[in-house]
Structure formats: C-alpha cells, structure tokens
Design goal:
Strand content: 15-25%
Helix content: 25-40%
Number of strands: 14
Largest sheet: 7 strands, mixed
Bound molecules: pyridoxal-5'-phosphate
Distance between the termini: 30 Å
C-alpha cells in the first residue's frame, strides 16, 4: 500500500516509476547533508564524495559485468538514449545510418528523428504481433561502420524482451555499432554486457527503486561516440557537469539490492501475475494479454470494446494506479505507436491498460486491482 496526501493507494505503475528503496535512501542521506563536497576537488573535505562516486561506479560495473570506466552517469534514461544516438551520429561530420524499431521509447525515436533533420538516414525495423523485432530485416540492410543499430532490450508498454544477444551478433558481423535501451530491464532481468556484446546500454535508476533524475550509459571501451554535454572534464571528459553524488550513490545501492534480490522478486512477481490472471480469466471478460517473453510483473491487457482511458479513471477513483496502454500520455487518446506496430485490432487496442507490479506489490494489491477491473467492466458492458 502506498500513501499520498494521507490517502492509501494501490500502486501498479512500476514501469512508469518505482518507490525509492530504504537502502538507497539511507545511502543517499549523508550526501544530501554534510558530505556536500564537490567530487572533483582535490582537498580532503571532498574525499568522501569522490570515494562514493568511485565506489558507485565499481558497484554498477559489477552488476552488469562491465569495467568501471565504461560507466558514465547521466540524468536518466532519456539522456542516455540521446547521448548514444546523437553521440554516434555527430562524432565526425560523416553521414550516419541509424537503424531502430517501430516500438522504441520516444527518447530513441525522437533522437533518431532529430538526427534525420540534420542529414542522417533513419530506418525502422518492424515487429511481429508479439512485439518481437524482425532481426532478419538487418540482413536486408546495407550496414557498415557508419551505422548504429539501436533496439530496446524490453518494451515499456507490452514488456516484450528482445533477443538482443542474437541481434547484436548479426549487427557486429556487418561492422556496425549496437546500442540497447535497457531502461526497463536493468535491475529486473540479468544483464551481462560482455555476454550480450553490446557497445552501449542505457539505464535509469527510478525504474529499479533508485532515485529519479539519474541513470547511466554503458559505453564499451573503444566505442566511437562523442561527448554529449560540453564543459568540465567530469565522467572521463565525456559528460560535463558537477556530479550528483547523492543520486549516484542511491542508484548504485538500488541496483545492487535489485540484483541481489532479482530471483526472489521474479518468483514472487510471477506468483502475483498468475493469481491476477486467474481472477481475470474466471470473470469471463473478453481480453488479451499483449507481448511475449514479458518482463516480470508487466501486464499489458486489452479488453474488447472497452475504453482503457475510462477504466484508468474509474480505477483512479478507487485509488488504484495503472496506466493506459492506448495513450502516449494523459492528454492523448490515440492508440500508441506500440499497439499500432503490433497490429492490435482497434476493438481491443482502445481498451488497453498496463498493470506493472513491482517489488512492493502484494497479494492484496493484485486482488484489489482484479476486483476493480472486473467491477468497472461488468458495470459498463
Ligand atoms: N526508455 C524506456 C524504455 C523507458 O521506459 C523510459 C521511461 O519510461 C525511458 C527510456 C526514459 O527514462 P527516464 O524516465 O529515466 O528519462
């Protein structure tokens, strides 16, 4: 149970953001108060901050099997995606090809589009009805060292996990560079950058019970990418700006904790999902679950001839937080680019919501959400 303004809520929008873990919070506290030294300064007072940033980089590197100097802290997933794409495209004044998919987050899609405006070529790979990227499409493209392929590890709307290792191998056979937006995956499924073979990987702390406004970009040593923010020499000279020590420390603590608990959390979420689905099935509602090989706890559900927006607002009145899968944002009632890309029938697409369970979700939560959905939809059909 979550509480806001004294009102208890059932929170099931963990793919949007998560509650800060108490381990992350406790680790951050000293750096929000007395340990405020600038980590770049050489004097003794700044040493705890410098040491904390160094340690955090080592912890993060260990969690994804990278080297510490391949971890660059950023302001979050959006910045990491922008950096990977623009940093590759703009490195040397030579025209680049950017290959992505039709179901990426807008941080990737809009970054690519902004590079098309300045003369770079952009291609989007289609997906099947489960949202699995058609990797064979890569073979039909002219790739080479001036191509970056950027494909997401797991989709934020429908949860589909992509065969990233296999796609990355294909891309490398053509001598191209590979980036993955792993914002929804890091801290939730095991990530080993050596095994995956990726050149760049984006992550964001607030998706794994860390603070908002902090993330990282993994850049494999030797990857051709230019600096994103110009200024001082922080982040090995590639991302200027005084480090947010508290947020960096919080990110590392949250990631370590998420990785240590990953298997147990996964098993628990699987149990909650099964319980939730069996209640929906018993209700006789006509619905489908979107995606395949989904992230733990993420359920994209499309109810036939229903309105996802109406459902969200009715659940909100019951103090249940889910998100609509059919709208890009609260003010946009269009079917999302992801649901269009998987070719979902309109009679289902309009009735889509995303229920995303997380570390703090309980049996009571899923029972309340299932009962709420069944109540609203049996009243309105
Ligand atoms: N990429 C994906 C797949 C996401 O789900 C999100 C956030 O929802 C982002 C990127 C952006 O991350 P941030 O909110 O940290 O900027």
């Amino acid at each position: 149970m979550s509480v806001s303004g004294g009102i208890p809520y059932t929170y099931a929008d963990n793919a949007a953001t998560t509650k800060l873990s108490s381990a992350a919070f406790q680790n951050m506290l000293p750096f929000l108060a007395e340990e405020y030294g600038n980590p770049s300064q050489p004097y003794a007072f700044a040493r705890p901050a410098k040491h904390a940033v160094r340690l955090a980089r080592e912890v993060v590197a260990q969690c994804i099997n990278a080297k510490p100097d391949e971890i660059y802290f950023t302001s979050g997933g959006t910045e990491s995606d922008n950096w990977a794409i623009k940093g590759f495209a703009l490195q040397d004044g030579v025209q680049k090809q950017l290959v992505t998919s039709t179901i990426e987050h807008h941080a990737v899609l809009n970054s690519c589009d902004s590079m098309a405006v300045v003369g770079h070529r952009v291609n989007r790979l289609p997906v099947d009805t489960n949202g699995v990227i058609d990797a064979s499409g890569i073979e039909r493209m002219e790739l080479g060292r001036n191509t970056l392929v950027s494909l997401m590890y797991a989709n934020n709307e429908i949860g589909t996990i992509q065969p990233i290792q296999e796609i990355c191998e294909r891309v490398h056979r053509h001598g191209s560079c590979f980036h993955t937006d792993a914002v929804q995956a890091v801290g939730h499924v095991p990530i080993d950058v050596q095994e995956l073979g990726v050149d760049m990987l984006s992550a964001s702390a607030h998706k794994f019970n860390g603070p908002r406004g902090i993330g990282f970009l993994y850049i494999k040593a030797g990857t051709r990418v230019c600096s994103y923010a110009s200024g001082g020499s922080q982040e090995m000279g590639l991302r200027a700006g005084t480090e947010n020590t508290a947020a960096i420390v919080g990110l590392a603590a949250a990631l370590k904790e998420s990785c240590e608990r990953m298997q147990a959390t996964d098993e628990r979420l699987h149990g909650l999902e099964t319980r939730f689905i069996s209640q929906l099935n018993a209700s006789g509602l006509d619905y489908r679950r979107n995606g395949a090989n989904q992230l733990p706890g993420l359920l994209s559900l499309s109810f036939r001839n229903a309105s996802g927006e109406m459902l969200l607002h009715r659940l909100d009145l019951m103090h249940i937080c889910v998100s609509t899968g059919s709208a890009c944002d609260g003010s946009n009632t269009q079917v999302s680019h992801v649901l269009k890309a998987i070719d979902l029938d309109d009679e289902y697409a309009q009735g889509t919501i995303r229920v995303s369970l997380g570390r703090y979700s309980t049996v009571d939560d899923v029972d309340r959400i299932a009962a709420g959905i069944i109540k609203v939809l049996t009243m309105h059909t």
